[in-house]
Design a protein that fits this description.
CATH class of the largest domain: Alpha Beta
Number of helices: 10
CATH superfamily of the largest domain: HUPs
Shape: elongated
CATH architecture of the largest domain: 3-Layer(aba) Sandwich
Number of domains: 2
Radius of gyration: 22 Å
CATH topology of the largest domain: Rossmann fold
Strand order of the largest sheet: 1-4-3-2-5-6
Largest sheet: 6 strands, parallel
Strand content: 25-35%
Structural class: alpha/beta
Order of helices and strands: EEHEHHEHHEHEEEHHEHEEEEEH
Length: 306
């Protein structure tokens, strides 16, 4: 997949261009409907489909104090879009300068750099441009003015629930992986980068990978049987999510530690995708490290059984 980083790079693609535009946090079934519709229309006329998204999430820039945790940070989102078979992805840097762009100017830039721009496909409630002044109705007017087609995809519902990033985030927070899976169209996973920790797990006989999850939404604290994907290789193990209450110097933020069965090499700096298979027990404080090590051994055996 070719990842473009500026609108001007659209000029290097063969037209006509069909764009699917959105934040696409989670790349859920609703987002997939937008992307697949654009791709199908492009194939019908031999055009080039391009997915257009933004980094960071606009809320991180416009409302940082109220910004939600992400279902998928940008690196994770790019990986998931790639798995959909997308050939071209434009990731636009979203900063305050870009946020001040009037919606008319944003569309004009897309039109000017495409050879030509044939279609814009978005979710029916998508808003864009300065003060979120752009919506589907305005986009349709701009499309008519520029001679391009605009498509707004209606909401996708699963079992009577409209699929949305907000609903998925709530399901994850409650540990309802089945509901999240229904709306995502795949298992919920976290993508994290392995960072150096205290190496306490190694001292206890259970070395762990400490993951920096790039502000992605965590499920409830506790111990889970888990599966990790490392460079395409699946590995089973135990995941501990929480505040490490047994350790005197416990971190104030929630941490995700992963003990992977059969993994012996160092993986600092590697990206690991984690899938939670089963909740085993809540996080708890033990009398000391020996008691903690004994419980970890039981957790490992339980996870192996799972």
């Amino acid at each position: 997949m070719q990842v473009l980083r500026s609108i001007s790079e659209l000029a290097g693609l063969r037209g006509p261009i069909f764009t699917a535009i959105g934040v696409f946090d989670g790349v859920h079934l609703g987002h997939q409907a937008v992307i697949s519709t654009s791709a199908r229309h492009a194939r019908e006329v031999g055009g080039t489909p391009v997915v257009v998204t933004f980094d960071p999430h606009p809320a991180k820039v416009l409302r940082p104090q109220d910004a939600p945790h992400l279902i998928t940070a940008t690196q994770h989102k790019i990986s998931l879009i790639r798995e959909l078979g997308v050939a071209h992805l434009l990731v636009i840097n979203f900063d305050r300068a870009f946020a001040a762009t009037p919606p008319e100017e944003f569309v004009a830039q897309l039109v000017a750099q495409s050879r030509p721009l044939r279609q814009i496909c978005v979710g029916h409630e998508w808003s864009f441009g300065r003060n979120r002044a752009g919506n589907l109705a305005l986009l349709e007017k701009l499309g008519a003015a520029h001679g391009l087609e605009v498509i707004g995809i209606k909401p996708v519902a699963v079992n009577g629930t409209v699929v949305s990033s907000t609903a998925i985030r709530a399901a994850i927070e409650q540990g309802d992986f089945a509901k999240a899976r229904e709306m995502l169209g795949r298992d919920y996973t976290i993508l994290g980068t392995v960072v150096k920790g205290t190496q306490l797990g190694r001292t206890l006989g259970f070395p762990t990978a400490n993951l920096s999850a790039h502000s992605e939404q965590f499920p409830p604290n506790g111990v889970y049987a888990a599966e990790a994907k490392l460079n395409g290789r699946p590995l089973r193990g135990v995941a501990n999510l929480g505040l490490r209450p047994t350790i005197a110097s416990a971190e104030p933020e929630r941490l995700l530690d992963l003990h992977l069965f059969g993994l012996e090499q160092e993986i600092y700096g590697e990206d690991v995708e984690v899938r939670f298979l089963r909740y085993l027990r809540p996080e708890q404080k033990f009398a000391g490290l020996e008691e903690l090590a004994q419980q970890i051994a039981r957790d490992v055996q339980t996870a192996r059984d799972v």
